[in-house]
Design a protein that fits this description.
With 230 residues, this protein is mainly alpha-helical. Helices cover 82% and strands 0% of the residues. The chain has one domain.
């Protein structure tokens, strides 16, 4: 016999995460779409890198271009699936807005981590990237991936019910993420430079992390209003 109390936000978020993970495991549409786009982009970049020498800054920028478009080609699916299946109302009845946001964020974080773990090593090999600071390189990838997933999650929720969702997703997301992409590319370029000062690397990772934390905090506050309009 239960006491009638509603489950905590954490338990609801884990339930949403498990539901979406199970649905993705059955269809594999999101991870397939993201990986297909990533591999295609990497092939194009590989041919370009083989034809002409690229500076460290260009190599770093190309990596984040691939990751940005790969993320925005699939991370909105966590919201689009709810609209397509007509389960938004059911989810609204069984979970609070904060739990829904956290669950969807966890799914996107896991998806982007899986994609990055595949894309980054292949890109490093294909573009002949020489990493001078591997530890900082992983830190930049992790911090920027967290920020990218956080922004992609809330932007996806904002445009989930729009008619031209695919066009709006990139159009809304790119201006929001442009500062992040510039800093991430700069930080990645620093990781390729043997003479890069540790203070610059530390400041870059801290700045990227702060951006992601700020996005999550702002999303936590505004998501209940977004969720009510979905």
């Amino acid at each position: 016999m239960t006491d009638g109390r509603r489950p905590s936000v954490a338990s609801q978020a884990l339930a949403v995460f498990a539901k979406d993970l199970t649905a993705e495991w059955r269809t594999r549409t999101t991870i397939t779409a993201v990986l297909l786009f990533s591999v295609t982009s990497l092939a194009v970049v590989g041919f370009a890198a083989g034809a002409a020498a690229m500076s460290a800054e260009v190599k770093a920028a190309m990596l984040w271009i691939v990751l940005f478009f790969a993320a925005f080609s699939g991370l909105a699916n966590v919201w689009l699936h709810e609209e397509e299946r007509g389960t938004t109302l059911l989810l609204r009845l069984h979970a609070c807005p904060e739990a829904v946001y956290l669950g969807k964020l966890l799914v996107n974080l896991l998806t982007l981590a899986a994609v990055t773990s595949v894309v980054a090593p292949i890109y490093v090999a294909m573009a002949d990237v020489r990493i001078a600071s591997p530890g900082w390189f992983v830190s930049v990838l992790g911090a920027a991936g967290f920020s990218l997933a956080a922004a992609a999650t809330v932007v996806g929720a904002m445009i989930a019910r729009a008619n031209a969702r695919s066009a709006l997703y990139g159009a809304v997301g790119f201006p929001v993420l442009l500062p992040l992409l510039m800093v991430a590319a700069h930080g990645t370029a620093l990781c390729l430079d043997p003479a890069a000062p540790v203070t610059a690397l530390h400041g870059t990772v801290a700045g990227i992390t702060a951006f992601g934390v700020g996005v999550v905090a702002a999303s936590w506050l505004v998501f209940p209003y977004i969720w009510e309009d979905m």
